[in-house]
Amino acid sequence: MCAIDALGIAAMLGRDTRIESVDVTTGQPIIITTTSGHTDWEPAAAVVFIGADAGVGPSADCCCGYLNFFIGQASAEAWTRNHPGIPGQILNQTQAEDLGTRLFRPLLAD
């Protein structure tokens, strides 16, 4: 599942969540837990890369493979250097959570 989709689930459902992922560069685990609206990231330096290839079509085809968690800025930067054809940006935790919330909270709102 896309990192931003995963982050948006807590806001969309108004429930506590636990996301378990791995850094695609290092293979190290990343765990994000949302409890009562507060989110904790492990490791504390984890970030999210958001990007898309030049393809046209559903976001699952052109984006989801490029919306990933990383253990930190250096790991995300290493991945971007190895994938120069994937434009995007690295988001800090607040930016990633805010994007997930903006995209997903309205989906089940009254």
Architecture blueprint of SSEs:
Elements lengths: L2 H11 L3 E6 L6 E7 L2 E5 L4 E5 L7 H4 L4 E4 L2 H10 L5 E4 L1 H12 L6
Antiparallel strand pairs: 1-2, 2-3, 4-5, 4-6
Helix pairs in contact: 1-4
InterPro entries: MerB, MerB_lyase_sf
Organism: Kribbella orskensis
Protein name: Alkylmercury lyase-like protein
Label the structural class.
alpha+beta
Shape: globular
In the residues, how many domains can be counted?
Answer: 1
Highest CATH level, the class: Alpha Beta
Name the beta content range: 25-35%
User: Care to count the β-strands?
Assistant: 6
| Strand neighbour order, sheet with most strands | 1-2-3
**Gyration radius over CA:** 14 Å
Q: Kindly report how far apart the N and C termini lie.
A: 25 Å
Question: What does the average pLDDT come to?
Answer: 87
* Percentage of residues assigned to helices: 25-40%
Provide a count of the helices. 4
Oligomer: single chain
Protein name: Alkylmercury lyase-like protein
Organism: Kribbella orskensis
InterPro entries: MerB, MerB_lyase_sf
Pfam families: MerB
